[in-house]
Amino acid sequence: MKYFTRGFYHGEYSEQEQDAVVEAYRSHIALLLPSIPSSLAVLAKTSLHDAVLRSVVVRGRRSIIEMELVCHTPPDRQWIAAVRYRGVQLRDEGFAMLERRARDRRTEILNHEVDVDEDGECVHRLLFAPEGEITIWCASIEVQQLPYTEWTHEVFCKCYVEEHEET
């Protein structure tokens, strides 16, 4: 994480330092918004704080990640953020972390950051509780807000799936 580090959440920053981090990230996003794809802008404006990883599906020889997150909007609204990353660049350790976090039902997202790297690739950083973080680089991100549906056995069993193509 570049802005919202674990130390930010563990009380290692003074109130003034926390305010400065929040303002720095807001300024960074304000600079990005005019030039980034609309779906990345939607993700940048979406709060994933306390979201739960409902499912992760990896396709296309690990070039596509589809993630469903159960999000909460006060006071009691739940909804699904369906995020699809295409042209994914992620090392084996990143996939392993994502799998561990998806299979651990205690996992929540503390925060996330949206960015664009020097090559114009989309960057999505996720900080997890109780542990872990991941940075996903990709060519594009699609985001949909879907109505919340109850967890079925089928959904629960596909918490992390890698679909391998037939050769």
Q: What's the helix and strand layout?
A:
Layout: H1 6-9, H2 15-32, H3 38-45, E1 52-59, E2 64-73, E3 77-86, H4 92-103, E4 108-116, E5 122-129, E6 133-138, E7 140-147, H5 153-157, E8 160-162
Parallel strand pairs: 1-8
Antiparallel strand pairs: 1-2, 2-3, 3-7, 4-5, 5-6
Characteristics:
167 residues; alpha+beta; five-stranded mixed sheet; three-stranded antiparallel sheet; 5 helices; 8 strands
Walkthrough of the structure:
- There is one protein chain.
- The chain contains five helices and eight strands.
- The protein is an alpha+beta fold and 167 residues long.
- The protein has one domain.
- The longest helix has 18 residues, at 15-32.
- The termini are far apart.
- The model has no long low-confidence stretch (mean pLDDT 91).
Number of strands: 8
Mean pLDDT: 91
Query: What sequence of helices (H) and strands (E) makes up the elements?
Result: HHHEEEHEEEEHE
Number of helical regions: 5
Please describe the biggest sheet, giving its number of strands, its sense, and whether it closes into a barrel. 5 strands, mixed
- For the terminal residues, how far apart are their CA atoms? 37 Å
Strand residue percentage:
35-45%
Oligomer: single chain
State the share of residues found in helices, binned by percent.
25-40%
As a whole number of angstroms, the C-alpha radius of gyration is: 16 Å
Low-confidence stretches: none
Shape descriptor reads: globular
Number of domains: 1
The computed structural class is: alpha+beta
Strand order within the widest sheet?
7-3-2-1-8
